[in-house]
Amino acid sequence: MNLVCDVSLATGYKSASQQARVISEDWFARNVYCLACEADSVQRTGANTRATDFVCERCSHRYELKTFRRRPRGRLVDGAFDSMIQRVQQGTAPTLCLLERSDDWRISSLTAIHSSFLIPEVVERRRPLGPRAKRAGWVGCNIRLNLLPIDGEISVVSDGIVHPFQDVRTRFQRFLPLAEKSTTQRGWTLLTLKMVRKLKRGSFNLQDMYAMEDEFARAYPNNRHIRDKIRQQLQFLRDLGVLRFERRGTYKLLN
Asked: What angle in degrees, to the nearest 10, is found between the helix axes of 183-199 and 226-240?
C-alpha cells in the first residue's frame, strides 16, 4: 500500500473540496482492498450514487469515503438523513472509511467504521437548512461515532503504518453476521458489547452484567426480560468469537 497520493490529479480544479475528492478517491481506488471478502480492490460507483463511493464487485459490500486532516471522534457529518437512515434500516448502509492525510497528502490513517455497527440510534438528524440556503429545507445527518463500541472501528492504517491485510480482514469479517440481523437485534448486540467493554476486565461473570441491568432497561424500556436478553447476546458474542465461555456464568473477552 503506497501512502503517498498523486496531487497532480487536482490540477484544473479550483475548489478545495473537489481537489480533496479527486486525490483521495484516486488513492483509495489504487490502494484499498475489500475488507468483507478476499477481493484485492474495490470499484468506484457512478456519479451521484447516494451514500456510496466504492463497491466490491465480488461481494457487493459498499464503502463511503471521508477525508480529513484530522478525523472527528464524536460526530461525523454525513449526507442526507433520509438516505442514510433508509439504508441503515434496510441493512444496506456502507462501511464508512475515514481517511486522514497530511498537508502534503501523505496518508496517516485509514479507519473503517463497520457498516453492521450503524443502527438508527447513531444516526442523528440535523436541522433543516434555512430558507436562504441554496438547498433550503435539506436535512443532513451526523453519525455519532462516540456511541459505537470500539470494535466497530477497524484500523487499516494508523500513524503511517499499514496493518497486515489478513489481520484487518479477520477483525472486520468477525462482525459480518450482524448484517443478517434486524436493527433491533443489532442494537441489543452492540449495547451488550459496549457494556462488556465498559467493565474493562479480561474476564467477567453474569452478575457483572446484571449489575448494569438499569442501563439496558433505559435503552429498551418495553422489554421485561432484560436478563434473558443479556444471556442471549453473550451467547451470540461468543459465537462471533468476541467472547469465550470459561465456566458456568463466566466469560473471557478475546482481544
From this structure: 80
Report how far residue 195's alpha carbon sits from residue 129's, in angstroms, rounded to the nearest whole number.
Answer: 36
Element (H, E) at 95: strand 95-101
Alpha carbon of 121 to those of 13, 33, 176: distances in Å?
38, 29, 19
pLDDT in tens, 44-84: 998 767 778 999 999 999 999 999 999 999 999 999 999 99
As a whole number of angstroms, the distance between CA 161 and CA 203 comes to 31
- DSSP, collapsed to helix, strand or coil, labels residue 45 as coil
Cell reading at 39: 477481493
Is the torsion defined by CA of 64, 67, 70, 75 positive or negative? negative
pTM of the model: 0.93
Structural domains in the chain plus CATH codes: 7-180 (3.40.210.30), 183-253 (1.10.10.10)
- Reading the block at residue 96, the C-alpha cell is 464508512
Hey, what's the cell of 69? 486532516
Q: What are phi and psi of 16, to 5 degrees?
A: -60, -35
